[in-house]
Amino acid sequence: MTRRFSISLPDDVAAELDRVENASAFIADCIRQRRRRDTVRKMLADAGYEITEEGIERMRRRLHELEGRRRAHKLEERRRGRAAS
Question: Got the DSSP string for the chain?
Fold first, then answer.
């Protein structure tokens, strides 16, 4: 069963929906992802882990740095492979 909603969105969010083929499916997926994230955060909090915005941003930076190193390593491996050929 489905229900119909009429909503108002800020321009930047509406622009995002303009780029997707099925706005309803996109919004439903976003809500499900948010629900899963909230469930995981609650489970972590119940286990004694404190999730903060600062901690999340710190991990994002760390993951970004690690991804950069991984890309550089793969590029170096490709260069070595070509040099050996």
Answer: ----------HHHHHHHHTSS-HHHHHHHHHHHHHHHHHHHHHHHHTTPPP-HHHHHHHHHHHHHHHHHHHHHHHHHHHHHHHH-
In a domain, 33, yes or no: yes
Range of the domain at 31: 21-51
Do residue 47 and residue 28 come from a single domain?
A: yes
Distance separating alpha carbons of residues 17 and 26, to the nearest angstrom: 8
Query: pLDDT at residue 85 above 70?
Result: no
Give the residue-averaged pLDDT of 12-38: 96
**pTM across the whole model:** 0.64
